[in-house]
């Protein structure tokens, strides 16, 4: 059974195929409007999400199928029922599962016991759907991936950062992470990304300097300083640590031609200023839209359509 749990498990060829398929679907959506007729997708949520829920629901409906949203707060899984039993039963009702969970371990157990494909809609460790659509957006805007440089600044110990490391290193994009020393990416993720970079001709660089990270980059990317797993009582201390990594007009001057990306939701005045997110360099809304098209490509691929 083919699942989509991590970009680390996807080949470079598969990644480029999905990106190209997403672009083709975006250009001619009517061609794919009945490809998943009679099929059902279930969306499992630990935490609500605008972009993940609506893009998957709309995508499945636009492919001719049906989507069901199920919040795990309503569920017995992990309480009265094991993830194994939950997955075994669920996969007899539906054709494909998307799970947005805190726990990577629970996601892996659901996938191990599922009779249908499982998609990682996000965990605290990775966010592969987001980065697949990000790469599609970059390809649209720049006409290529290989040879470009993406700089990520902010919290490096972050699910989006981890998936960017995998996705960029596998697609030939140089990736530079600017983050505080206490918020470095997971060492295992970093080591694996560097292995991929050697194979695919890209570079991986991590620095504590935001200006060094973004210098000469084609894309400048940031994310929330308060991810879902971060306790609210840490907000004040984290803002103090991360303020030198805020994406503002001054930082953008180190890469005058760079585009700005953010996976949203954004806290304006924290990780990014209004002057950047509302500027001509910002492609955050195109980025959000492409969640729909890239995920359609993913659904069709996993269901062999």
Question: Would you spell out the secondary-structure blueprint of this structure?
Answer:
Layout: H1 12-27, E1 40-45, H2 50-62, E2 66-71, H3 83-90, E3 96-100, H4 104-112, E4 118-122, H5 128-142, E5 149-153, H6 159-171, E6 174-178, H7 187-200, E7 204-207, H8 210-214, E8 219-222, H9 235-242, H10 249-252, E9 259-262, H11 274-277, H12 284-302
Structural commentary:
By secondary structure, this protein is α/β, with parallel strands linked by helices. It has 2 domains: 7-127 and 291-302, 3-Layer(aba) Sandwich (Rossmann fold); 130-287, Rossmann fold (3-Layer(aba) Sandwich), CATH 3.40.50.1370. Helices cover 42% and strands 14% of the residues. It contains 12 helices and 9 strands. The protein has helices at 12-27, 50-62, 83-90, 104-112, 128-142, 159-171, 187-200, 210-214, 235-242, 249-252, 274-277, 284-302, and strands spanning 40-45, 66-71, 96-100, 118-122, 149-153, 174-178, 204-207, 219-222, 259-262. The strands form 2 sheets. A 5-stranded parallel β-sheet has the order 7-6-5-8-9. Helix 1 packs across helix 5, helix 2 crosses helix 12 and helix 5 (128-142) crosses helix 6. It is globular and about 55 Å long. The chain starts with 11 loop residues before the first helix and ends with a helix. The mean pLDDT is 97.
